[in-house]
Amino acid sequence: MMSLPFLLFACGLGAAWLRQRAAAMGFWVAGLVVLLVLFRMNMSDVLNIAL
Amino acid sequence: MPGDVAKLLNALALMAVDTVLALAFVDQLWFSDLPCPLCILQRAGLTAAGFGLALNVIFGPKPSHYGMTILGAAVGGAISIRQILDHIVPGTGSYGNAIFGLHLYTWAFIAFALMIIGSAIMLLDDRQFSRAEPMWSRLRPLPVTAVATFILLAIGNVISTVLLCGAGFCPETPGGYLIFNDNLRVTMFAGAL
Q1: Among the four B7, B45, B86, B188, which has the fewest Cβ within 10 Å?
Q2: Structural domains in chain B?
Q3: Do A10 and B151 touch (CB under 8 A)?
Q4: What are the distances in angstroms from CA B96 to CA B17, B19, B180?
């Protein structure tokens, strides 16, 4: 699951290499959304910065 | 600045991103400093930010590509700030090896900040967007190398993350590659939930 953003970005780069700009940007958006979701899921604990 | 110069600058910036991602692999493979979940997400943020640079190299500079770089760097920067804050209180330790006195997540934050500043500076020049030119046919070795290396590093991160974490979430402090031990089935089951 953690490899999903890389997979989507790699697919997007492949699409860009094949000159499919719209598809590349679509993969990038999907990758960024997945990245944000994974960040949220990994950071469920409260940050403790009390001195 | 002409579009070709902007493209060359983007290729150089992409080479810098390639170097950072490659050094992360060197740290992982040579020094056995396995990446934590946030470290992996920061690599993904770096890939998201570098994506815009790659599009600038392939299709020519466009404001939307710089926007992608800024957004990717902002997400990556937020992730690195979170990890910095995890260890900012004295006595809370750190993660991984320090390089020149700073840990990788601090260097990552600096890199993301530089990408945002650099993209903003590049956006100040409108002349690079003035004419559409067939960039792909005029690619030279440096841009092709930068993009090809970036693609290979993205694929390498897919493989590395699957080996490290299996199909689920990565352990907070990875002790080894999950794919090579018996915990994989548990990890895959947890990932399915």
Answers
A1: B188
A2: 3-153 (1.20.1550)
A3: yes
A4: 20, 19, 22
Domain that holds residue A38: 4-42
> Does the beta carbon of B135 lie under 8 angstroms from any beta carbon of chain A?
no
Distance CA B94, CA B91 (A): 9
Whether residue A11 lies inside any domain: the answer is: yes
Long-range (24+ apart) CB contacts under 8 A made by A41-50 are: A41/B169, A42/B37, A42/B38, A42/B41, A42/B169, A43/B38, A43/B82, A47/B82, A47/B85, A47/B86, A48/B89, A49/B85, A49/B88, A49/B89, A50/B89
Nearest to A6 among B38, B161, B191 (CB): B161
Look at chain A and report how many structural domains it folds into.
1
| B134-173 tens-digit pLDDT | 555 555 788 899 999 999 999 999 999 988 888 778 777 7
3-state secondary structure of B173: coil
| pLDDT category of residue A34 using cuts at 50, 70 and 90 | very high
Does the beta-carbon distance from A5 to B169 stay under 8 Å? no
Please count the residue pairs, one from chain A and one from chain B, whose beta carbons lie less than 8 angstroms apart.
105
Tokens of B166: 């299996």
